[in-house]
Amino acid sequence: MRMPNIAAQTLQRQILSGAYQPGQMLPGQRVLAGSLGISRASLREALSMLETLGFIRAVPGKGTLVTAGRSVGQSTATQSSAEVLATYQLRFVLEPAAAALAARAVEAQLTPRLWGAQTRFEESLKTLDLIGASRADLEFHQLIADLSGNAVFLQIVRSFEDRISHSLSLPLADHDRLWEAALEHRAIAAAISAGDAEGARHAMQAHLLGTAQRVGITFVPP
Known about the structure:
Elements: H1 3-17, H2 29-36, H3 40-52, E1 56-59, E2 63-66, H4 81-105, H5 111-126, H6 130-147, H7 151-159, H8 161-169, H9 178-193, H10 197-214
């Protein structure tokens, strides 16, 4: 696992355990990086993850405020709304087609890989390990592109991994609606496992529209 992810998980656990309370400022970056044994560049990446997931908020001129439990509507995401919208539009064009192709092409011995990613996603949600959930979420979507058998689909998904990962993380900041994505994932995985191409396509479309709605983005499907 990359150092920023490890640092983000460590800070997340400290926030959830009460070591850092909502409303409290985190130590300065130099002190915090030293305590975690990482570079300040890795720390900044970890803090960006935690901000996207709703655990902290940067306060100009003051530092980093612990805000665990705030709603996604308060997000100060690093990507603009236009960039996030563009990412969802790209995903809506690409991922339903990938899911349908995966349903047509998938072999029985490969479906455990998909359900394995789903299990890791749900186990992370149970413990509110949103860093782990975000990683498993990305794995689930990349795996569908891989199972589609279309190498170009997979290449596009990997090329835009940072943008897609960010769009996947944003809904996780709404801690009251975490399980909606899990249920949508189950519908996608079930349709792919059953070889139901149209069911997989529609389930992925519903998932993408649902996740966009949970972060306050509405768009007309292409």
